[in-house]
User: Fold this.
Amino acid sequence: MSILTSFIAGCFRADAVINFYFQINLYFTLEINIFLSFPFLFGYTLAVNGGGPSNIEGALAALDAEDLRELIRDIIPRLDDKTLSRFNNAIIERAAGGKTGWQPSGPTDEAVAEAVTFAKAAKRVGYADPSEVDNYLRQGSNAFLRRIYPAASQIFHAVLLPISEGEIDLGQDEMFEEMLGMNASDCAAQYVVAVYMTSALEQRADAVLRAIEDMSNAGSFWEPLREMERVSVEPLPDFNAFLRQWRALVQEACKGEGSHQWDIDVDRWLREAVRRTDGTEGLAGIARSTRRSDDLQAWLPGINRVRRLEIRPGCL
Assistant:
């Protein structure tokens, strides 16, 4: 699609773009429907894996809440460190995100200081035990879930940042994430939200940008606004004001990068902000000004949605 859309961008007549895009969509839709029309392609996979409703699903449905709790308590001691950490993390986050209002206990000031001391010592020797790292990251996440944002920010910055930058080795062969039970990407996003929550409104956009840059090796910030909202446990305060600041900041950063052909982070960040403030028209403005294929591809799905709304039965 990138070569085709680059060619289209050269012509850049909106009607031609829309019509061509619909033809491409129709082609791929037909191809997918033809593929799905052969049930044996999926039936074979289901048959190999037991097919139909599984016994496990039926058994889980038959257990009441107390039976499930007893089962989990029985399983927990049998798990290895990494699996245990992931299992505990899933339970805590599911409970904290529920309707009961439950929150995990947060770290004390002494525990935060201990995490910082641990990270400094690990940096000196260049190594840390993954299970210990998991423990401190869990404390940072607990602080975040309990809305103790200063503690969460301090722990994540002290522990996760030097690991993501290679200052602390966890014994990994390739990616440090493979050694952890905690989800490093979630912790990185929680750190950014914690920075948001602890920054004054007038400095918030700059602080968030620095936080994202700090955690760029630990998290996935393809669309940072969506990533922040994904992990946030409460509405982000003064978000509309922040959004205006954020758009201006990344727009200025894009200008500073000069002319370039391929997408960089600030290009995607600007499109995300513009999509929220100005919608499809805003994306069209970016595409017309840059004539880059990535900006055109980001605009086309918006045109597609508008076109579908215009031709939907009952809208005429």
About this structure: Residues 116 and 158 are 6 Å apart (CA to CA). Confidence is low (pLDDT under 50) at residues 1-52, 306-316. The chain has 15 helices and no strands.
